[in-house]
Amino acid sequence: MPKRRAKNLKNLKRLKNRCILLGVSGGVAAYKSVELARRLTDEEASVFVVMTEAAKQFATPLSFETASHNRVYSSLFDEPMAHISLPAKADCMVVAPATANTIAKFAHGLADDLLSTCFLSFRGNVIVAPSMNWKMYDNPVVRRNLDALASAGVAQVGPGSGALACGEEGVGRMAEPAEIVEAVRAALSEKNLSGERVVITAGPTREYLDPVRFISNRSSGKMGYALARTARDRGAEVTLISGPSFLGKPAGVAYIGVETTSEMLGAVTEAVAKGATVLVMAAAVADFSPVRESRLKIEKGRGLTLKLSPTKDIVTSVSSSRKRPFIIGFAAETGSRADRAAKKMKEKKMDMIVFNDVTEPGAGFDVDTNKVEIIDRRGRIHTGLMSKDDVADAIFDRFLEIKA
Ligand code: PMT
Fold first, then answer.
1. Does residue 13 belong to any structural domain of this protein?
2. Angle between helices 114-121 and 82-89 (to 10 degrees)
3. Is residue 131 within 8 Å of residue 161, measured between CB atoms?
4. Stretch 1-17: mean pLDDT, rounded?
5. Each residue of 353-372: pLDDT tens digit?
6. Which of 222, 245, 281 is the pocket-test mutation for ligand 1 (most atoms within 8 Å of CB)?
7. Tens digit of pLDDT for each residue in 139-181?
8. Are 55 and 26 within 8 A, CB to CB?
9. Residues 19, 92, 118, 166: which is the catalytic one?
10. Whose CA is nearest to atom 20 of ligand 1?
11. Does residue 25 have its Cβ closer than 6 Å to ligand 1?
């Protein structure tokens, strides 16, 4: 089979070389936006920061200059045409924190400073991350302004709920930088999976010995959740079927939580029957289940011999059905056993398999990166070590190549 490296694939590092205009208005959360600027530059985006005068009371231009590696803009008159030239080169505009005042200006078309004029002259995706006291956020006037922005196509991320700077608790905390980066990635994604109905499994399953003990594995769900976010960002309708995981449920996907292999089988069968076009089995499904599950907690005693039987194979159950989706499986192996993965693909009648040597440093279980080989009937692609989000992009890129 011909081998290729993933560096040719176009969607890797979605923010690389993209230009982000980061507006910072005067809220106490402005300091968090320094981290946002740093995260965006870490993703190889170019970041240009526009601060309002009030923002400078909360964070310094120097901090943003250091984080963005670019000069920071603030006045309409420092550089006469900055309100046209900065938006013209930006692919996306993010305003974080977006105060009630800035939201009101945007909603009413006021243009009395650099940030509000940039907003009016910008023609791409705008994301606002509101940040204010909960009573302000709850005020119908603020809500009306946000609704007006939403109907003008402005996306909103957050606010979250929790302790606020004023000492009160409630909804008004600016979304965390990681969440805002995710919103930027979504805004800049080509919607080339639109029309696809993608079912993704993630995390481990558990097989119980008794009411308190189970057999499971080290899967965190990170790979499957990255696939779900990526498919959603690229326009697919996504159902995420997840075993137990500490990860937050991704917004904008249908989420089904399961625990055992038979629950996962039931949920997959039902989701596929509803007309899935693609099934991605990233879950680390338990291969064995105790033959007998004790109704009561098993006493410690002197020792215990377990009798196990194989669990029902979910992939095979779907691939042998008459109306089957495109099936992408994973193969977690310990060592360079790509040929075993290829064999698994044929035996389980999958269309593609992602070979994952979980002994490779930075790959496999419970890490944010992975290194895989994508195998299908036409060839093999080595990804090299990259984020799980980028691996997810590489997998869907290959799916689209095959489908074309
Ligand atoms: O969750 P993370 O911490 O991010 O870790 C990611 C991962 C290592 C779990 C993931 O990348 C991965 O490799 N998942 C598949 C693990 C696995 O179960 O591999 P397998 O070789 O045992 O199974 C092959 C395929 O059959 C898999 O797609 C599996 O989902 C499926 N299977 C397995 C058993 C079973 N009863 N039914 C199945 O459908």
1. no
2. 50
3. no
4. 61
5. 999 999 999 999 999 999 99
6. 281
7. 999 999 999 999 999 999 999 998 888 788 889 999 999 999 9
8. yes
9. 166
10. 331
11. no
Ligand 1 mutation target, pool 330, 343, 349, 389, most atoms within 8 A of CB: 330
Residue 11 has pLDDT above 70, yes or no: no
225 and 177 fall within a common domain: no
pLDDT tens-digit series, residues 101-133: 999 999 999 999 999 999 999 999 999 999 999
197 pLDDT exceeds 60? yes
Whether 371 is in the pocket of ligand 1, judged by its Cβ within 6 Å, is no
Q: CB under 8 Å, gap of 24 or more: what pairs does 186-190 form?
A: 186/229, 186/232, 186/233, 187/92, 187/125, 187/127, 187/155, 188/14, 188/15, 188/18, 188/91, 188/92, 188/125, 189/14, 189/233, 189/234, 189/235, 190/11, 190/234
Decide: 219 in ligand 1 pocket, CB within 6 A.
yes
Please report whether residue 52 resides in a domain.
yes
Q: Is ligand 1 within 6 A of the CB of residue 74? A: no
CA of 286 to the centre of ligand 1 (A): 9
Give yes or no: residues 169 and 235 share one domain: no
Least confident of 144-148, 234-238, 319-323, 340-344: 319-323
For the ranges 2-16, 104-118, 173-187, 313-327, the lowest mean pLDDT is seen at 2-16
Containing domain of residue 109, as a range?
19-188
Overall domain count for the chain: 2
Active site residue 118: no
Domain CATH number, residue 80: 3.40.50.1950
> Does the beta carbon of 350 sit less than 6 angstroms from any atom of ligand 1?
no
Same domain, 86 and 107: yes
Q: How do strand 326-333 and strand 352-357 relate by DSSP bridges?
A: parallel
Cβ of 331 closer than 6 Å to ligand 1, yes or no, is yes
**Which of 188, 209, 227 is the last residue before a domain boundary?**
188
